[in-house]
Specification:
Rossmann fold, single chain, 5-stranded parallel β-sheet, alpha/beta, 230 residues
Length: 230
């Protein structure tokens, strides 16, 4: 089996590192032997992607799905997944994610598989969740204290403060730094500290039937997203 993933993202951070992140989760954390093929991320403005009229999300999902179908057309053992990966910011993931999935599902043919994972509050919070493993990496301090409130802070601001402890002129560069941090991040630490990252891991796990029934997922909205036709 080859799992093809078409990510839909909102910003420079996700677009720059989502491929590396998904491959690391698949191979390093989940230890899956199957091939993972991540196609180039489709990027849109968050406000437009989550708009109640659903127009931009619908169009973006269709484009991503068609591109994924084209990439996998000669693969007779392909499994396809459209992954909506956005920042939750101040929205409640348990409310927003099911609405986005419902809109996306309605835009595609029955049987298309769509997942939505919202990083709480932003993808940088996942980096903070595994930051103890990043000490002295890419300009960070030689020692980084363990955080227990990872998903209650603004990840990009926290990372910039840490960088400036070493170099007062240093700023956090989304397209450069996030890619470097994701490459070195301790995924186990991140999964322990960030429930929203754990959800991403469980969504990928659910694409491999041998890993067990979908009923093992923790949250009701997770189950709803994985029902036939979702």
């Amino acid at each position: 089996m080859t799992l093809y993933v078409a990510p839909i993202v909102e910003g420079q951070t996700e677009q720059g590192c989502v491929d590396r992140l998904l491959h690391r989760v698949w191979g390093d954390l989940l230890k899956r032997p199957e091939r993972l093929q991540v196609i180039e991320a489709f990027r849109g403005h968050r406000d437009q992607l989550i708009h109640l009229n659903g127009a931009v999300l619908t169009e973006t999902v269709r484009k991503a799905f068609l591109q994924m179908k084209a990439k996998s057309r000669r693969d007779t053992d392909a499994s396809l997944l459209v992954l909506i990966l956005l920042d939750a910011e101040q929205d409640c993931p348990a409310t927003l994610a099911p609405r986005l999935v419902k809109t996306a599902v309605e835009s595609l043919a029955p049987g298309a598989v769509i997942s939505c994972v919202l990083a709480k509050q932003m993808l940088e919070n996942w980096i903070v969740g595994g930051a103890c493993s990043l000490a002295s990496i890419n300009g960070l301090p030689n020692a980084i204290p363990l955080r227990t409130d990872v998903e209650n802070l603004r990840g990009s601001s926290w990372l910039e403060r840490q960088l400036r402890l070493v170099d007062r002129t240093r700023s956090y560069r989304k397209t450069i730094d996030a890619k470097e941090f994701v490459q070195r991040l301790d995924l186990h630490e991140c999964r322990t500290n960030c429930p929203s990252f754990d959800k991403l891991c469980r969504e990928l796990q659910a694409r491999v039937p041998t890993l067990g029934p979908i009923a093992e997922l923790k949250n009701p909205e997770d189950q709803a997203q994985l029902e036939p036709g979702s």
